[in-house]
Amino acid sequence: IDRVVLFAPLAPAALRAIIGRILLRLLAGFQARQGLHQLIVQVDAELVDLVLSRCDPQFGARDAERQAERLVGKAVADAFLHPGRTWRDVGRIWLGVDGPDVVVRID
Fold first, then answer.
1. 81 φ, ψ (degrees, to nearest 5)
2. Bridge partner residues of 96 (DSSP)
3. Rounded to two decimals, what is the model's pTM?
């Protein structure tokens, strides 16, 4: 490393947009890995706000990605590990917030 370059913390609006893209990429990857190409994914705006509330703007997009993966990845995995559920049963997935928790509804 030749030198360290410091960046200014991201503005909340910029970080919110980045989090939206991170969530889309995370969920698209999940769909592709499971072969659920017809799956309809809906994300409540409050989920973006929850991820944003857990991020430190000083650490930027990397921290946002870590928080999104931690919050959303675990919630989606837990929802799909429900006994008796098969992948063929899934047509729509909705992600939202209930207090400090991510909520996943699968239809």
1. -85, 5
2. 103
3. 0.80
